[in-house]
Structure formats: C-alpha cells, structure tokens
C-alpha cells in the first residue's frame, strides 16, 4: 500500500477543509439565491445595458472595441502568468531538498519528506493549470463576443431582432466574466495553499481568511454598495 511519509491526520483535515471551502464558496456564490444579490450579478446587468447602448451607436463603436480589447488583454495577462507559475513550480521539483531546508528554517516551518513536499507542489501546479484553462476559455469566449458584436447591423434603430441579439451577446459576456472570476478565485486559493508549506494549521487559517475576503468583496464590499444604489 502506498503511503506518504510525514502525512498526518492534521494534513488530511487541512486539505479536506481547503477543498470544502473552495467548492462550497463557488456553489454559494454561483448557484444559490445569493447569486442574484452579488457584485457579479450587478455587473451582468450592466453588461446587458452596455450591449443595448452598443447596438444604438451604429458605426461609432470604437469605444466598445476599446473596452473589449482592455478586457481581453487582462485575461491574456493572467493566462500567460498561470503558465509561468506552472513552469516555476515544476522547476522547484528539481530542487526539492534545498526548498525543504529553506522552509524548515522559517518560523513555524516544519521539515517534511520529499514525497510530501512534491505532492504539495503538484497541488499548486494543478491549481494554476486549472486557472489557465479558465482564463484561456474566457479569452475564447471574448473572441466569440467580438464576432457577435461585429455581426450587429450598423443602423441605430434597436429593433426586436437586435434586442434579442444584444441579450445573447450580453449573456455570453457574462459567461466569460464568470470564467474569469473562477480563474481569479484559483489565484486566491493558491495563496491559501502556500500556508501548507509551513504548517497545516496555517493552511486552515489561510483558507478561511481567503473565503472571508472573497465573500466580503462579492456581497458586502464598497463596490457592491455603489453598484446597488
């Protein structure tokens, strides 16, 4: 039977708490009644408004293309950063002994077996691979949105057909925004996962802190109050 040296019940509990918090928060934020009272929901309403205004601008849609380009560039930056993080983490696997010695010398740091260390690094790799797929798919969705925006007739009259199409594009933008949010959440939870390299208790505390930060920013932040006024 395969066993991991130095893997304690506290490590298992900390990892289970991490998974529960991540999936639990995503479920509450995106798939419950709370979703309709979030910052993301308010932004989705503004996306629909943006698309209706875009359809009325006729040939003068430079501002819309600038906004779209800015959004797509931000997604591309995070996607490329995720790949760089994956490469850096894989490089760390080649210096396992040195990394273990450095962490063990830090306050509250614990010395672990090379196998457990490598499992922790691979967990970080999985997190950033996940974030890359989310950002890459978001970028692809923005490409679809750009094509659909270009397909809107240039006349300024908002006909029922154009209104249906603007709703479709707005929903696609919202879907891209949700994928972007999931990618950013992976970054936040990756910060929490760093705590496991020092101590399982720090891992548990950091995970709870990340959930509280995400919850406050999504449901009780200043930006939420401003948007909901």
Strands, helices and their partners?
Layout: H1 9-31, H2 39-56, H3 62-92, H4 96-104, H5 114-151, H6 160-193, H7 200-219, H8 222-228
Helix pairs in contact: 1-7, 2-6, 3-5, 5-6, 6-7
Written overview of the protein:
The chain has eight helices and no strands. The N and C termini lie far apart (59 Å). It is mainly alpha-helical and 229 residues long. The chain has a domain at 68-198. The chain is elongated and about 70 Å long. Helix content is 79%, strand content 0%.
Poorly predicted runs: none
Count the E strands.
0
| Mean pLDDT over the residues | 90
Q: How far is it from the N-terminal to the C-terminal residue, by CA?
A: 59 Å
Tags for this entry?
mainly alpha, about 80% helix, about 0% strand, elongated, single chain, 8 helices, about 230 residues
Summarize the structure.
Helices cover 79% and strands 0% of the residues.
């Amino acid at each position: 039977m395969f066993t991991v040296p130095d893997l304690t019940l506290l490590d298992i509990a900390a990892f289970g708490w991490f998974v529960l918090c991540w999936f639990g928060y995503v479920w509450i934020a995106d798939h419950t009644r709370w979703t309709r009272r979030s910052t993301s929901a308010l932004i989705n309403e503004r996306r629909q408004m943006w698309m209706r205004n875009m359809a009325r601008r006729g040939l003068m849609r430079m501002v819309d293309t600038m906004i779209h380009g800015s959004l797509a560039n931000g997604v591309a930056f995070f996607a490329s950063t995720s790949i760089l993080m994956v490469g850096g983490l894989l490089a760390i696997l080649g210096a396992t002994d040195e990394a273990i010695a450095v962490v063990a010398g830090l306050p509250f740091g614990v010395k672990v077996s090379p196998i457990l260390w490598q499992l922790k690094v691979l967990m970080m790799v999985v997190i950033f691979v996940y974030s890359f797929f989310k950002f890459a798919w978001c970028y692809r969705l923005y490409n679809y949105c750009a094509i659909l925006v270009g397909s809107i007739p240039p006349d300024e009259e908002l006909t029922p057909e154009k209104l249906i199409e603007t709703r479709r594009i707005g929903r696609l933008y919202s879907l891209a925004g949700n994928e972007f949010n999931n990618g950013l959440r992976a970054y936040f939870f990756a910060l929490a996962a760093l705590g496991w390299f020092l101590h399982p208790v720090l891992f548990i505390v950091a995970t709870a802190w990340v959930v509280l930060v995400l919850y406050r920013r999504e449901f009780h932040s200043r930006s939420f109050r401003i948007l909901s006024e």
